[in-house]
Write a structure and sequence with these properties.
Layout (H helix, E strand, L loop, with lengths): L3 E3 L2 E12 L12 E11 L7 E13 L2 H6 L8 E12 L2 E11 L5 H4 L15 E12 L4 E13 L5 E16 L4 E16 L4 E16 L9 E11 L13 E10 L3
Antiparallel strand pairs: 1-2, 2-3, 3-4, 4-5, 5-6, 6-7, 7-8, 8-9, 9-10, 10-11, 11-12, 12-13
Length: 264
């Protein structure tokens, strides 16, 4: 149910089922868990001129079978909640949006995995908690050139039985120059840093950057016009001296391709 007027805003409610597959292979023939999500949102309240807000509650309920309950282990997953608050503001011909989130149990890992709201059934997460802050915005520099950014800081504790805390920071900026109403040049720079601190006193760091240039074809000049066809080249680099590319032999690589993005 979407956009039912209530006061200065509107209420939306969704009931979603999303399964977690192969949770524990030792439970023969019964290792999948269906998870029900209740998603409640309130949007449209404007606390001052040029602003708008949205608030959300997601409640995840793992629905285990009797066989899984008798086995226990990962199947003893508690219900989890994720709370979201957004406030946006018209700014310089574009907008700026700040998002605050809190999540616990199997939803907590989304705060550091850049996930949207899936429930982790593959780790012991009943003590997990997490927070996330996102700032994003779009600023038109000229009539033909705009810049979009997304800055994310995430924090989560106890998202596995051996992880004490995880901290993550990422920043992506995309510039777009519109040659015509349908043809655009896109440049994107992104980077992230993540540190996992373990209960045994050790830690693991990850960091990387991606640089992309693309020629885009879209159905209009707006920054978010979709569908969009992109012909792109990307350079990826692991700055923590790992070797995730070229069959674990290189810390950097180039990707080339054609991508289509469409929204419904």
């Amino acid at each position: 149910m979407e956009n039912y007027t209530l006061g200065p805003g509107a209420v939306s409610l969704a009931w979603i089922r999303g399964d977690a597959n192969d949770v524990d292979y030792r439970v023969d023939g019964d290792s999948n868990v269906n998870i029900n999500y209740i998603d409640l949102r309130y949007a449209g309240w404007k606390p001052w001129t040029g602003s708008w807000t949205e608030f959300g509650i997601d409640y995840a309920m793992p629905n285990t079978t009797k066989k899984q309950d008798s086995y226990g282990g990962l199947y003893d997953a508690d219900n989890g909640v994720m709370l979201t608050g957004e406030i946006s503001q018209d700014m310089l011909g574009g907008y700026n949006k700040t998002v605050l989130q809190y999540a616990n149990k199997g939803l907590a890992q989304n705060m550091v995995s850049q996930g949207g709201g899936w429930y982790d059934m593959w780790n012991y997460v009943n003590d997990a908690t997490g927070y996330r802050v996102i700032n994003t915005g779009l600023i038109p520099i000229t009539e033909k050139f705009s810049i979009n950014h997304v800055l994310t800081w995430g924090s989560a504790d106890d998202i596995t039985d051996y992880t004490d805390k995880t901290r993550m920071l990422s920043l992506v900026a995309r510039g777009q120059y519109q040659f015509t109403d349908y043809v655009r040049l896109i440049g994107e720079v992104g980077g992230f840093y993540q540190k996992d601190s373990y209960n045994n006193g050790t830690s693991y760091k990850q960091a990387g950057e991606k640089y992309t240039i693309a020629l885009g074809l879209a159905d209009g000049p707006d920054f978010m016009s979709r569908p969009e066809l992109r012909i792109f080249a990307s350079y990826l680099n692991d700055s923590e001296d790992g070797k995730p590319f070229e069959d674990q032999t290189a810390n950097n690589t180039w990707n080339f391709g054609v991508q289509v993005e469409a929204w419904w």
